[in-house]
Amino acid sequence: MQFDHIGLITDEKKKDDIFVPATRVWITDFQKHPYRVEWLRYEPDSPVTGPVRDMPHIAFRVDDIEAAGEGMKVLLEPFDVGFAVVAFFQTDDGAVVELMKYKDEEG
Amino acid sequence: MQSRRFWLLGLACLVVVLSGVLMGYGFRNAVADQPATVKMVFSHVGIITTEKKPGERYVPATKVWVTDFQNHPYHVEWLRFEPDTPVKGPVRDMPHVAYRVESIKAASKGLKVLLEPFDAGIARVGFYQTDDGAVVEFMEFKNQEK
């Protein structure tokens, strides 16, 4: 498990954010951030609800999402984000964890 | 004829050596002008909460309950501030990402200071803010093996 980024919820417009129509959220590219921060600005009518919408998340790269996520509550089942397959989980103590399986391991 | 050939060869060598020296000089200067590359290792994320979390401990100086990120499987540190905490601003209100560095001074160059470096027991730490508003903690571990 290797640290990848943190996702922070904001209501401010951030530089170079791009719109994701499916989830109605503006996101920034954490790969370009010196401290691996991904800003997420949800539109009021975003279909995303719950901890993923309301809380920051911490993301790790893993070899096997299913194995790494075992025992945690599933918030979002694995889905394809282009360069990786990702899924969101919640720990017993309430932290939101994103697990990422990169398609290109060099990613 | 022979001496002229030697002279030309000598001149060519001089040009090669001189241009090499000049290029080397320029390259060194270009590198020196860039900010120093700082080695950073991810340590934890700090998340503000209003819920009591298992294993939290009270820090009287800052009136905050904190959990041990070293015992968390995903390196999460929960921070629950008392209403009368003296901590204010982004450190109080926003999550932070923390990195281990060799030198807080070098790593924080150019960032806005939120909390000057202080002794946090396991490490010396300082809090900073990026231009885009993210809160970053830098940690100098006393024992680098930690």
Structure report:
The complex is a heterodimer of chains A (107) and B (146). Chain A has 2 helices and 8 strands, in the order ββββαβαβββ. By secondary structure, chain A is mainly beta. Chain A has one domain: 2,3-Dihydroxybiphenyl 1,2-Dioxygenase, domain 1 (Roll), CATH 3.10.180. In chain A, a hairpin with a 5-residue loop joins strand 7 and strand 8 (96-102). In chain B, 27% of the residues lie in helices and 34% in strands. In chain B, strands 2-3-4-1-5-8-7-6 form an 8-stranded mixed sheet. The interface between A and B is medium-sized, with 22 and 23 residues.
Which characteristics define this entry?
heterodimer; A: 107 residues; mainly beta; 2,3-Dihydroxybiphenyl 1,2-Dioxygenase, domain 1; 8-stranded mixed β-sheet; 44% strand; globular; B: 146 residues; alpha+beta; elongated
Structure, briefly:
The complex is a heterodimer of chains A (107) and B (146). Chain A is mostly beta strands and 107 residues long. Helices cover 7% and strands 44% of the residues of chain A.
Q: Give the chain pair forming the largest contact, with residue counts.
A: A-B, 22 and 23 residues
Report how far the terminal alpha carbons of chain A are from each other: 15 Å
Strand content of chain B: 25-35%
CATH architecture of chain A: Roll
CATH top level label of chain A:
Alpha Beta
Poorly predicted ranges of chain B (pLDDT <50, ≥5 residues)?
Answer: 25-35
Let me know the number of strands of chain B: 8
Our estimate of the beta-strand percent of chain A is 35-45%
- Helicity range of chain A: under 10%
Question: Order of strands across the biggest sheet of chain B?
Answer: 2-3-4-1-5-8-7-6
The total tally of domains of chain A equals 1
What is this structure's SSE topology?
The complex is a heterodimer of chains A (107) and B (146).
Chain A: E1 2-9, E2 18-20, E3 25-27, E4 37-42, H1 51-54, E5 57-61, H2 65-68, E6 73-80, E7 84-90, E8 96-102
Parallel strand pairs in A: 1-4, 5-8
Antiparallel strand pairs in A: 1-5, 2-3, 3-4, 6-7, 7-8
Chain B: H1 2-33, E1 40-48, E2 57-59, E3 64-66, E4 76-81, H2 90-93, E5 96-101, H3 104-107, E6 112-119, E7 123-129, E8 135-141
Parallel strand pairs in B: 1-4, 5-8
Antiparallel strand pairs in B: 1-5, 2-3, 3-4, 6-7, 7-8
